[in-house]
Amino acid sequence: MKKVYFIIITILMLVLVGRFSYLRIFKHDFYYQEYLTKTNKIVYGINAPRGRILDRNGKVLVDNVGVNTITYYKIGDYDAFEVATKLGIILEEKMVPTIEELKDFYLETEETDSLLTEEEKKDFEYRKITLEEVEELKKSRLDEKVEQYTEEEQNIIKIYTLLNKGYRYSTKIIKKEASEKECANVNELNINGLTCEYTVKRVYLYDTLHTILGSVGSITKENKDYYLEKGYSLDDEVGLSYLEKEYDDYLKGEKAIYEVKSDNTLALLEEAKQGHDIYLSIDIDLQMQINEIMKKYIDQKDKYANTDYFNTTYVLVSNPYTGEILASSGLQKINDTYYDVTSNVLTNSFTVGSVIKGASHTVGYQNNLIAIGKKINDSCIKLYQVPMKCSYKRLGLIDDITALKTSSNYYQFLTAIKLTGNTYKANMKLNVTPEHFAVYRDTFAQFGLGSTTGIDLGNEFLGIKGSQVADDLLLNFSIGQYDTYTPLQLLNYINTIATSGSRYSLHYLKEVKEQENTIFTYEPNLLNQIEDTGYFARIQEGFKEVVYNGTGRGYTDTSLKPAGKTGTAQIVFNKDITTINQSYAMFAPYDAPKYSIVVMSPNISIENSKNDTLAPINRYIAKEVSKLVFEKQ
User: Is 405 helix (H, G, I), strand (E, B) or coil?
Assistant: First the structure.
């Protein structure tokens, strides 16, 4: 029995020793930091430098530069209003508080019970209304009061608000990019905790892609819960949009940690660490060259008739087998100034026209509505109480391949009619149902049209789905004249055709590095696989014919072995004006696709009954861009 007790005691001792060693050695730093935090003996530095954003070749797109920043650590017994008053004299530009900040200051510093009625006071006393509701009532009656603050007083109130922002021991940023004179004057005040530090500011080194790269800033009231749950502090600077937000976990650095000594001085415990660098799939040199091509032809728009409302073009370049985006450009010219509108490629959708007929053909193939190789005579469709619907001209004998080559609307109309279970005859009713639209939309979604592209950014718009169900609208849908699609969706679609049905997520991220060590690589992500029973070869052959001998002739030099499809769509610009969108989606070489390109130009022309000139701008941009892409890479 004694032996058993001895064994039990020995085991317990080993457990205790092991636990002590674990806490004393392995978890020492963790619990020490917890102790310091709980006892308010540590403070954190200003936001650490974020990681850089670079292109696929290592060229820096987003970096950090040093700036003077006036900061305050509340480690003494100084009166905040007195400090704010002194800073108000030093700072060269007056600060402007919000109405909410003025009201908060008034509530804190003035007697405000007189703002309540006797009944409201009783309601609060008997707990019929909360303290928060009382505060809101008072604030609603302070508009005239706070309007009486002078400009000087408002300046001091704003500084006072910044001095008291966040937790007691957190770092308060009073002013970024302070002048040398302001810093010298701050140091002369000799107030413990008030200093001028050399910190970093985010800089974007190119005037393109900025809207996709995103922005950084302070945590807002709207998103504070999200960031607090992730372990951030309220005074942290975070990614607010697009890539800066999407990859904030990688990009954010770690703040310096200081211990507050008994004499209120700070001792550095840990230095700040810069965030990880992220490398994009973008080739910035290619992007800039594409921008110059776009600008050249947008600048020439006045050479052509009917271009009154044209001012924007989008160009995308990708690898169909990985989904990585090599160039992503949106340019808009207003009053002789160019604006980067690249983010529109995922947030704006357009009626794109016949460019989507590869997906429409797939509806026919998958539902046994197309007789492969069978020739028919291109004609027109006349439904009951619907104007006649035709191709842009009579195209003669066509089969499934030449229907793509010549962009026959009639061929797509017949497929849609067969889907409803009807055989076409003049003035017929189709009795279209929502299920017929669903067949088209479900098939289109397999290509990324009307569905997510898997892009590694939030805020992706899926386009507008027409809500009406009518016979003629189903025919319109089949030729790209009903639902709307984003340029990114067009890219996803053409990639899926290039790969014979493999649809990969589109993405901007290539890899993440910590110094020279790669810690994450974006691997191709297959979203779905469309079963290929041989019809993709027919679509690819049709797209090849489009560029060699059909509606896309002249869009890409045939020496590059291209395949692609054009699209033209009529748009109601306003009640008096109809404009035309033009699009082009291609890949090459057609027998071993390496790159894909989408060129989209909304409102490129006005529909004019007296002059039907359609400016060739989209074609010229496409030809130069495709030559650049395939010769550069």
Answer: helix
- Tell whether 184 is covered by a domain: no
Residues 257 and 239: their CA atoms lie apart, in Å, by: 22
Token representation of residue 331: 């340019």
Which of these, 629, 601, 609, lies nearest to 297 by C-alpha position? 601
| Cis previous bond, 589, omega within 30 | yes
By the 8 A CB rule, do 615 and 602 touch?
Answer: no
Amino acid making up residue 577: I
Residue 420 has pLDDT above 90, yes or no: yes
Element (H, E) at 378: none
Residues 571 and 429 in one domain: yes
pLDDT tens readout for residues 6-63:
667 777 777 676 666 665 665 555 555 555 555 556 777 777 889 999 999 999 999 9
The Cα 435–Cα 325 span in angstroms is 35
501 & 595 share domain: yes
Task: Please report, for the domain that includes residue 67, its CATH number.
Answer: 3.90.1310.10
Name the strand (E) or helix (H) holding 124: helix 118-125
Q: Give the predicted TM-score (pTM) of the model.
A: 0.84
User: What residues form DSSP beta bridges with 599?
Assistant: 315, 584
Whether residues 524 and 381 share a domain: the answer is yes
In the structure encoding, which two tokens stand for residue 165, read together?
């922002």
Q: Minimal CA–CA distance to 329: which of 630, 57, 621?
A: 621
Q: Among 488-502, 565-579, 585-599, 603-617, which is the least confidently predicted range?
A: 603-617
d(CA 372, CA 384): 29
Are residues 503 and 574 both part of a single domain? yes
